[in-house]
Design brief:
Layout: H1 6-12, E1 29-34, H2 37-40, E2 56-61
Parallel strand pairs: 1-2
Length: 91
């Protein structure tokens, strides 16, 4: 899961290539999802993310066994941080 938002902080740390807007890689919106609400919200409201204006975000608590709460085609890119070992139903 996204945990305390380390990937978000890294994306916001620098401008997109060629100054096209967004954070690193041109990311403009990031959904942070974790099965642990405690981990997901650990630093919320207590930590200022430098460059947060480059990339918006929102946090979602998700059930790792359930279908994701997003319709097909919602995302251009999906990243997983050390989570595939939790997936039980691979195609």
């Amino acid at each position: 899961g996204s945990g305390a938002g380390y990937v978000y902080r890294a994306i916001c740390a620098d401008d997109a290539i060629d100054g096209e807007g967004g954070g690193i890689g041109g990311v403009r919106k990031l959904v942070q999802m974790d099965s642990s609400e405690t981990a997901l919200r650990r630093d919320e409201g207590r930590l200022v993310v430098e460059g947060a204006e480059r990339c918006g975000t929102f946090r979602v608590v998700g059930d790792e066994e359930a279908k994701l709460p997003f319709p097909d085609g919602t995302f251009d890119l999906v990243m997983s941080s050390a989570a595939l070992h939790w997936v039980n139903d691979l195609p």
